[in-house]
Each structure stands twice: as C-alpha cells, then as structure tokens.
Amino acid sequence: MKGILYGVSVGPGDPELMTLKAVRTIEHCEAVAAPETRGEKTLALDIARGAADLSGKEVFSVGFPMTRDPKALAANYDAVASQIVQRLEAGKSVAMINLGDVSIYSTFSYVAERVAAQGYEVEIVPGVPSFCAVAAKLGTPLTQRDEPLHVLPASFEDLDAALALRGTKVIMKTGKSLQKTLEAIERAGAIEHTSMVQNCGLANERVCKTVSAADTSSDYFTTILVKEK
Amino acid sequence: MKGILYGVSVGPGDPELMTLKAVRTIEHCEAVAAPETRGEKTLALDIARGAADLSGKEVFSVGFPMTRDPKALAANYDAVASQIVQRLEAGKSVAMINLGDVSIYSTFSYVAERVAAQGYEVEIVPGVPSFCAVAAKLGTPLTQRDEPLHVLPASFEDLDAALALRGTKVIMKTGKSLQKTLEAIERAGAIEHTSMVQNCGLANERVCKTVSAADTSSDYFTTILVKEK
After folding, report:
1. What is the distance in angstroms between the Cα of A213 and the nearest Cα belonging to chain B?
2. Cα separation of the two ends of chain A
3. Which ranges in chain B are annotated with CATH 3.40.1010.10?
4. What are the CA-CA distances from residue B32 to residues A156, B50, B88, B108 (Å)?
5. Residue A127: which residues within 8 A CB-CB, separation 6 or more?
6. pLDDT in tens, A97-151
7. Which residue blocks in B50-127 are alpha helix, DSSP H?
8. A86: how many CB neighbours lie within 10 A of its CB?
9. Which CATH architecture has domain A5-125?
10. Residues 59-118 of A with CB under 8 A from B
11. A19 and B21 in contact by Cβ < 8 A?
12. Which pTM does this prediction carry?
C-alpha cells in the first residue's frame, strides 16, 4: 500500500484556528513535511505542534528558496516532490502543512502536481485564510450585500488599477513593499478606509484599525484591508 | 456579568471543517442563536451539532427573511439583536453560528453592530470559507504566483466586467441565477476554464470539474470557479 499526500492547511497563526480535520489528518500521517522558507521560517510546524500530537512521527523539512527564477523553482519543486515520494513509496502517508489555506498563494500545488503525475493520491484539507482571521480581529466584515472581494498579492503589478475596483481589497504578505503599497492606497484616496494586521494570531501581533501612509514597519505577515469609500 | 456575543463560523458543510476554536466557543456559551433562512434552512445548526456538544444549551432560531427591502431588513436585524441582547443581559453568552466564514456575505455584521451599539462585547471566530473547501475538493489552487482572486456574489450587477479581470474568479451562491451566470461565463470565453461544486461537503454534493453552459440544475449552494485563460 502506497501512502497518500495530504496538503493540510493549518490556518494563519493561532493553533486553535486549525480545523478538526487538519488535526486528525496530521495525527493520521506517519510523516509531516514542514516547509521552511526565509520569510515564514518553521511557522507552520509551530502552529501544527500547538494542536496536534506529533510524537512518533517523522518530521522533515522541505526548503523553498525565495527566488523568482523559473528554472531554480522547478528544480526545487522536483526535489521536494521526490523527498515526499520516497516516503509515499515506503507506505507512509505524508501531511505537508501550509500556513493559512492551501489554495491561496501556497507552494503546495506545484509539489502536488508532480507527486500526482507519478501516480500517487493527493488530498487537500482546506483551512482558515489569513484575511478571514484579520477581518475577525478587526471586527469588520470583508463583504456585505453585493460587494465583491479582491485578494491581491503585494507584488501585484497593477495595484493602482486593482485599488480602483468596486468592493473590498485585501493585500497579502506586503512585507518589504509596505511603504510602496501604502503610497498606492493614498494615491487611490483610500487611506482613511484602510486597516491592517501584522502577525495575526502570533505573539507579536499588531492590530491597526487606522493606518498612516508614513508607516515604515515591515513585516512579512502584514495583511492590509481596504474598504470601499 | 453581562454575556458576550460570539459570531462563530462553522465552515461550509462538513462538521470536521469547524475549527477547534469554533467548537470550544460554542461549548462555552450558554445559548446558541441558529439562523434560519429559506435558502439555508437550519444548515449551520446541523453542522455545529456534528462536532459540538449542545446538550443543556438554549438553542434559539433567528429568522432572516429573504427580502431586499431596506426597511424590512433593518426591522429584522433590530428584532434579532434584541433577541440576543435579552440573553446577554441575563448573563448568558451567545454563539451566533454562521455558514462558511462570518466575514464573507453573512448577516452577522448587521446584528453585531446593533448589539455592540447597546454596549455589549462582540467577538468573531473566523472559519473556512466555502470557496476554499471547493478548491480543495476540485484539487485546484485558487491563486498562484501573482494572480489576484476575485470573489463575487452571483447577484453582482456587472458580472461581465468582473469576468474580464485578470486572475481567478469565484462566484458564490448562484442558486437560481446559475443559467444567467453560465451564459456570462460563456460570453467571456471562459467556460472551458470553469468548474463548480454544489453543496460542498454535504450528502448531496456534486463536483463538476467541467461545466456546460446548458446546465440547468439550480442549487442555492453552488460555487463556481473561473480560472484565467
């Protein structure tokens, strides 16, 4: 019997925001693949440990370099897939844990398509995305009535056009580009409708119900919420 | 001691997609407010019962008529808020349970602002939105690289313009407007990149990896995913 690869969402930070299914799936697997990146360190593993019992499991790191070079990225996904396939072939099921929800800006899909192409079963456990936790923390709805919601990465090339769209805008993982992002929001005349949470659910959480365009704090886990005027 | 109102997200359908915090919060409260609507019936309550122990709690229905008349809606929110305030004033904490995530197209915020205005504490427990569960079920990521994600209600007035945006489009709760929505997707030339899940995580779930513009099935809980060409 070959193992199954599970892409398990562990939520944005607070271990209590893991789902019952995420905890059960991790505890069911013989091995846990813990992504390690420069920005996120071993945060997903810390969250998982906060709610699931990992004793007796093989926990192994999978590294994702912060590069944009397609060749280097593809080689890295191949290497991670082969680390996982090794375990699946030995009959171990693997839970690859992911911050927030697996479907939103995670690296899991690149690894999963390679593992699936080699004939292994892949299953996904959805979770709480950071922007839902951020809205809860701010006590504000993301969408009301017929409003659309636009989720944008901070690296999005045409932020000015996106900020002009109707509805609520969520800008994720601003990190070093916080100032550039806040400047775009000010250009759009929306700075008074903007709020922000850094490190949501973590010890160093910072909740800003209002935001100044001069804010120079930079944190990888910054989520910005821009409501409609 | 006055009670606290908790807006608790119970996820899209499968009780196992409730978070640990949602289960703990519901079990902590003396009373549970269960929304009852024409489209959703008592689904949120059925989900909550599937994972949380409600024995000994006061479970009361809060009705939301399916009207768009602002006066009727406001009067209804006032009435629901007063049902809740009655319990809070008696020292009972109330968990108002909500499908999916509380921050996305839920009625909770209208009730919560009224309860908060009367001086009571309100806290929100985020959850798994239906579109994350739908993506997991389809085995497809919602966003990759720098792609934006646009979440739209089926009632959105300018669906054609929204479908022309870059990135992934999620169209929620299409229900009776399924045909109109699929026609708009076909006009946008995107029907081959469209998939759909009806009643995600429920007994009558229907997963459609491909979609025909002629599909006339109508179900309140239909989530459509349109990927970029």
Report:
1. 23
2. 57
3. 5-125
4. 42, 14, 12, 13
5. A8, A9, A10, A11, A17, A18, A19, A22, A98, A100, A101, A102, B128, B132
6. 999 999 998 899 999 999 999 999 999 999 999 999 999 999 999 998 889 999 9
7. 70-89, 108-117
8. 13
9. 3-Layer(aba) Sandwich (3.40)
10. 101-106, 108-110, 112
11. no
12. 0.95
User: In this structure, are residues A103 and A124 in contact, taking their beta carbons and an 8 Å threshold?
Assistant: yes
A181 CB within 8 Å of a chain B CB: no
Residues 183-202 of A with CB under 8 A from B: none
Question: Where are the CATH 3.30.950.10 domain residues in chain B?
Answer: 130-226
For B182, residues 6+ apart whose C-beta sits below 8 A from its C-beta are: B191, B194, B211, B212, B213, B214, B215, B224
**Integer Cα distance of A131 and A224 in angstroms:** 9
A18 at the B interface (CB within 8 A)?
A: yes
Is pLDDT of A216 > 80?
Answer: no
CB B53 within 8 A of CB B27: yes
pLDDT tens sequence across A137-191: 999 999 988 899 999 998 888 899 999 999 999 999 777 788 889 999 999 999 9
Mean pLDDT per 10-residue run, chain B (229 residues)? 97 97 98 84 92 97 86 95 98 97 94 98 98 97 92 89 95 84 94 94 92 80 91
At what angle are helices B108-117 and B70-89 packed, to 10 degrees? Answer: 60
From first CA to last CA, the distance across chain B in angstroms is 57
**Could you give the ipTM of this predicted complex?**
0.95
For residue B28, what is the enclosing H or E element?
helix B20-28
CATH of span B130-226 = 3.30.950.10
Taking an 8 Å cut-off on Cβ atoms, the answer to whether B18 and A15 are in contact is: no
Q: Which among B112, B125, B143 has CB closest to A105?
A: B143
For chain B, say whether A124 makes contact (Cβ under 8 Å). Answer: yes
